[in-house]
Amino acid sequence: MENIKLAIQLILAFGIYNVWIINYTKGSKYRGGKSTNMSEEFEAYGFKSWFMKIIGFSKLTLATLLIAGIWFPYLVEPSAFLIGTLMVGALFAHLKINDPFVKSIPALIMLILCSTLIIL
C-alpha cells in the first residue's frame, strides 16, 4: 500500500511540475479554450495574470510538499486535499467556458488521485 501511495505522490507532483514548468509556454489539447500556453488559458477563463501566478505558486509548492511527504508523511494528506481543491476549481473553470469534456480529463484524474491518497 505504501508503494501505491508513493507512486501516486510522484505522479501528482511530476504532473504538476510538467504542466507548470516544462509545458508552461506550450500548447496542449487539454488547455482551456483555444489557448496555446498557460497565460492564454487563464485569459480564456477570464482570470487575471496575478491569479495565475498565485495558482502556479500554490500548485508548485504543494507538489513539492508531496515530494517532501516521502520523508514527512504528515504533509501528504493536507497537500493532496489542497491540490484536489484546486482541481475542483479547474473543473469549474473548464465548465465556465463550455470546454468539451476531454479538456477536463487531466484535472479529473488529478482529483481522483488526490482523493485516493487521502483515502489510503
Description:
The protein has helices at residues 2-22, 38-44, 49-68, 76-96, 105-119. By secondary structure, it is mainly alpha-helical. It has one domain (2-119). The longest helix has 21 residues, at 2-22. The chain is globular. It is built from 5 helices and no strands.
Keywords:
120 residues; mainly alpha; globular
Strand-helix topology:
Blueprint: H1 2-22, H2 38-44, H3 49-68, H4 76-96, H5 105-119
Question: Would you kindly provide a brief summary of this structure?
Answer:
The chain is an all-alpha fold. It has helices at about 1-20, 40-45, 50-70, 75-95, 105-120.
Binned, the helix content reads: over 70%
Shape: globular
Number of helices: 5
Supply Rg.
Answer: 14 Å
* Mean pLDDT across residues: 96
Q: What is the string of helix and strand elements?
A: HHHHH
Number of strands: 0
Counting copies of identical and different chains, the oligomeric state is single chain
Beta content comes to under 5%
